[in-house]
Amino acid sequence: MHLRNRPILAAAAALGLLTASGCGELPTAPRLDPGGVTAGSAASGALTSVEGVEVAAPVGTPVPPAGTPDLTTSAGVNGETGGSLRLEAVSLDVPPDAFAGTAQISVTIPDSTKLEVHLEITPASKNHFDVPVRLTFDAAAAGRDPRAMVIRWRNPADNQWVDIPTTVDPQSGLVWADLPHFSDYQCVSEVRGRAGW
Q: Which has the closest alpha carbon to 175: 196, 154, 146?
């Protein structure tokens, strides 16, 4: 080996040791507060958990808190008088005489980026309506073109989405369907859905 290469090898070995040891002992190493959160992570306001270790997310990268619940609302409704519920771009109108007695109705949006909703009524014995309940999606408010939209029902037997009779008002941007029962529903572009996008 030439003597000229020894300083280069020594520098490479030193760099390798620094890399292997990490930056934990350097003066610029991140400091942990007593709670175990990296200093400066409070400014980003977002923490995530990786195998039980809290890690600060980069600034500008939103990380939802673990266990964030779906968007949901519920109300007690008297089936003889009816009522309405609204959540984001979804509204539900229960007409008078839809069912006998009272029930708790829940509207849940599992993903706010989609026009999709889970509807539930308790007790479950009231989940067949004498007068259909109207489900309305405000496609225009959600930034969608309502003209080619269709509402679909998820058939639990085969987990497939099935088109149901849908009414569209291009002027208001509203898309609605009258439901005989509650389940999972979505409002999608008919052209896009059939093309398999």
A: 146
Residues 6+ apart with CB under 8 A from 107: 72, 73, 74, 85, 87, 90, 92, 117, 118, 119
The Cα–Cα gap between 158 and 89 comes to 28
Q: Can you spell out the DSSP letters for 32-90? A: BPTTSPBTTHHHHT-EEEETTEEEEPPTT---PPTTPPPEEEEEEEETTT-EEEEETTE
- For residue 161 the two structure tokens come to 């989405």
Same domain for 93 and 182, yes or no, is yes
Average pLDDT, the chain: 75
3-class DSSP state for residue 12?
helix
Residue 63 within a domain: no
Q: Which residue range forms the structural domain that includes residue 100?
A: 71-195
Structure token digits, residue 130: 């004498």
What dihedral do alpha carbons 7, 11, 17, 18 form, nearest 10°? 150
CB 37 within 8 A of CB 30: no
Cα distance between residue 33 and residue 76, in whole Å? 47
Total domains, the chain: 2
Which pLDDT band, with edges at 50, 70 and 90, does 190 fall under? confident
Contact 172, 140 (CB under 8 A): yes
**Percent with pLDDT over 70 in the chain:** 61
Q: Could you say which DSSP state residue 130 is in? A: S
